[in-house]
């Protein structure tokens, strides 16, 4: 049995099912799995000008039949579920050839599907024979360990990366071309199914924290490890093929960890320490019996030593009273109320931020 400490940031050579069986239970924060798709490609693929296109014809993608493929997938998925922490999650990517079979197996094993994410390719490989639509997408199943499990989702980080809007479950990311595509000394692509780093960047930034362990049981050319190292996470890779391990090892060695990158550090999703109004009164950041003014500055209420606001109906919290004034069920009172300072209205949230910075050395980033 391995210990996580001894195998962090290493590539384990061998069959993934055997290697997974040596990983301690509930020890992995995030799994990204890019298994064989069982493409069942037959014959040569020729480009329109007549040159041969090298698709996926490697031995690791060949299975006797669907039953053999299903048995293989069920075995490694069972082990992934065992090693995943209770609050961890897993992404499994596939295409039309295999993703429906994998989804069926995952649901049978008790995984809880959070999203099916579509990787939309603006530059897909064309359908050379012209007998079908050009296949321009792949699907990722993002799953928690079970229906009741908690899991990491860095919502604010992903919203920021999407220009201030909620990130959708369709990600438009180009396939690996140009300098990103790793090639051997003969100029041939080192791995047939190398995934773009942006895809893994989205996965890792969305569902992990700095220092987490990200496991990839089908490590290939090492994209998961490269992005994990860059974003200050740890990785564990598993790979059968020695030539892929050499490619991945060299690639990862050349990556620099960006420790000061605020986005990679999940700064947007780190919740500030809780500070009650009563604490701000105690430390003289707010004054007892001063008035809190509504966001429109039309209504005012006296703050009591308890931190509640005085009303004709009795003392109420800043949140409950602001919701009442807005005819809402709930409302964030910190961004609603203001106080007067030097004849100017200042949000009590600004005052709270000053307290966090000076007293607790916590300063949320502004982007």
Describe it for me?
With 367 residues, the protein is α/β, with parallel strands linked by helices. The chain folds into two domains: 4-269, Vaccinia Virus protein VP39 (Rossmann fold, 3-Layer(aba) Sandwich); 277-360. Helices cover 28% and strands 19% of the residues. It is built from eleven helices and 14 strands. The strands form four sheets. The protein has an eight-stranded mixed beta sheet, with helices on both faces. It has a two-stranded antiparallel sheet with strand order 3-4. A hairpin with a 6-residue loop joins β11 and β12 (300-302). α3 (66-83) packs across α4, α6 (197-207) packs across α7 and α7 (223-230) packs parallel to α8. The relative contact order is 0.11.
């Amino acid at each position: 049995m391995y210990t996580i400490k001894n195998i962090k940031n290493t590539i384990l050579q061998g069959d993934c099912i055997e290697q997974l069986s040596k990983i301690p239970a509930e020890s992995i924060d995030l799994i990204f799995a890019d298994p064989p798709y069982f493409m069942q490609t037959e014959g040569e693929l020729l480009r329109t000008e007549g040159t041969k296109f090298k698709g996926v014809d490697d031995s690791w993608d060949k299975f006797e039949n669907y039953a053999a493929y299903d048995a293989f997938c069920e075995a490694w998925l069972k082990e992934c579920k065992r090693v995943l922490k209770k609050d961890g999650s897993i992404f499994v990517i596939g295409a039309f050839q295999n993703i429906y079979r994998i989804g069926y197996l995952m649901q049978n094993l008790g995984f809880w599907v959070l999203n099916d994410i579509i990787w939309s390719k603006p530059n897909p490989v064309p359908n050379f024979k012209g007998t079908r639509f050009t296949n321009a997408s792949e699907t990722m199943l993002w799953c928690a360990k079970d229906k009741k499990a908690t899991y990491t989702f860095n919502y604010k980080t992903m919203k920021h990366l999407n220009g201030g809007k909620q990130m959708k479950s369709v990600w438009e990311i180009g396939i690996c071309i140009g300098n990103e595509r790793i090639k051997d000394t003969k100029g041939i692509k080192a791995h047939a199914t190398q995934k773009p780093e942006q895809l893994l960047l989205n996965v890792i930034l969305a569902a992990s924290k700095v220092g987490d362990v990200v496991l990839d049981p089908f490590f290939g050319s090492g994209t998961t490890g490269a992005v994990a190292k860059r974003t200050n996470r740890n990785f564990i890779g598993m790979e059968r093929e020695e030539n892929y391990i050499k490619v991945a090892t060299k690639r990862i060695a050349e990556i620099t960890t960006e420790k000061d990158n605020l986005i990679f550090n999940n700064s947007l999703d780190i919740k500030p320490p809780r500070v009650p109004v009563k604490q701000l009164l105690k430390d003289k950041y707010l004054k007892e019996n001063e008035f809190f003014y509504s966001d429109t500055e039309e209504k005012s209420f006296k703050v009591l030593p308890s931190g509640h606001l005085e009303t004709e109906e009795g003392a109420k919290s800043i949140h409950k009273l602001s919701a009442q004034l807005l005819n809402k069920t709930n409302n964030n009172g910190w961004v609603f109320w203001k106080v007067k300072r030097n004849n100017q209205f200042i949000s009590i949230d600004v005052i709270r931020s000053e307290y966090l910075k000076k007293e607790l050395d916590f300063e949320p980033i502004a982007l």
